[in-house]
Amino acid sequence: MSGEPVERWAVLVNHEEQYGLFPAGRPAPGGWRPAGFEGTEDECTAHVDETWTDLRPAGLRRAMAAHSTD
Questions:
Q1: How far is it, in rounded angstroms, from Cα 48 to Cα 13?
Q2: How far apart (Å, rounded) are the C-alpha atoms in residues 56 and 18?
Q3: Which phi and psi angles does 18 have, rounded to 5°?
Q4: Which of 11, 45, 49, 68 has the lowest tally of Cβ within 10 angstroms?
Q5: What angle is formed at CA 63 by the lines to CA 45 and CA 35, rounded to 5 degrees?
Q6: 19/40 Cα distance (integer angstroms)
Q7: Which domains does the chain carry?
Q8: Cα(30)–Cα(4) distance, rounded to whole angstroms?
Q9: pLDDT digits (tens, 9 = 90+) for 24-57
Q10: pTM (predicted TM-score)
């Protein structure tokens, strides 16, 4: 262990249900909101990998569903 403090990150999500990481404790930038998960960068990345399984923006998913012939 280096003894240095571990940097904390927050998982954010935008209106298109796309995810990103941002330093914890700072206000989310415009267009983003907290997704309810904080941790180390590795923990947050793992959470995003588990949660964000369809990388298409929400608007594209909706449009594709509306045109589906299934």
A1: 10
A2: 8
A3: -95, 145
A4: 68
A5: 25
A6: 16
A7: 9-66 (3.90.820.10)
A8: 31
A9: 999 999 999 999 999 999 999 999 999 988 877 7
A10: 0.77
